[in-house]
Every structure is written in structure tokens, then in C-alpha cells.
Amino acid sequence: MFNIKSKTLQLVVISQLTVLFLFIAMTTCNEIFDLPHILFGDKPTSLEQRIGEVIIEFAILTIIMIIEIILIKKLYQRIRILEGFLPICANCKKIRHGESWDQIEKYISDHSLAKFSHSICPDCKKKLYPEFCHEKIE
Asked: Of 27, 29, 31, 122, whose CB is crowded by the most CB atoms within 10 A?
């Protein structure tokens, strides 16, 4: 169907398939054992009617699963999850992407929905702009 490298998205697909198989198992058990008759004392359902119900339920399930697969594919195309190891320069902090090196902000912006806003931390402010640091000495 599609190659899923992300562990998070693999878990989503596995959970969806688990729900699918549970639904199939419950529907099948309901129709084989005529659960409304057993649990609620309803009059027994004929075998022909139960077979018809199974066909209708599986048709509905197929439509739902086709819609679900389309939605998961669209979601997978939209979500970008950074996982694994990122080769980063120990000095300038650029990230290697294939043969090129990109600034960390550019790399993350290109590979996720994150946006950056720059500021200066207190330690760098003291180092770069000591004239603007007016700390009280106790």
C-alpha cells in the first residue's frame, strides 16, 4: 500500500487494522451465533437473513475502510515527523542532508511544520551585550 517509516504512523495503522479485525470478528460472531437471540431472547433469525446481514455489514465496512484508508494516506502525506539520527556539525550546528549542509532552522522548517522566531537567551545576552545587563550584585 505505502511505505511507512515513522514509528508513530505505524502505530496508527496497526491500531486501525486492529479495530478492523475486531469489527469483523464481532460481526461474524454475531451472525454465526445469532447473538440477539441468545442475549436478549429475540426470536431466532433465519440463516438466509443472517447471510444477507453479513453481506450488508461487510459492504458497509468496506466503504468505511476505503474512506479510512484515503484519509490515512492524506494524513500521512501531510504529517512530517522528524525521527532517527540527524548528522549535525559539532561546530556550526548545520545538518547534513544528502550531500549538502543546511542551517538547522532551514532543515527543520523544510521537514516539519515548525516555524522559528529568534531571540537571545540570558547567557548570550550577558556575553554579547553586557552593557544592557543590569543585574543587582548582592
From this structure: 31
Indicate the pLDDT class of residue 54, thresholds 50, 70 and 90. Answer: confident
pTM, rounded to two decimals:
0.48
Q: How many residues does the chain have?
A: 138
DSSP string, 65-128: HHHHHHHHHHHHHH-----S---B-TTT--EEETTEEE-HHHHHHHHSS--------HHHHHHH
Which of 77 and 49 is assigned the larger pLDDT?
49
DSSP string, 9-55: HHHHHHHHHHHHHHHHHHHHHHHHHTHHHHHH-PPPPPHHHHHHHHH
Whole-number Cα distances in Å, 16 to 22, 27, 69, 83, 134 = 10, 17, 9, 22, 57
Confidence class of residue 103 from pLDDT cuts 50, 70 and 90? very high
Domain segments of the chain as ranges: 7-78, 95-132
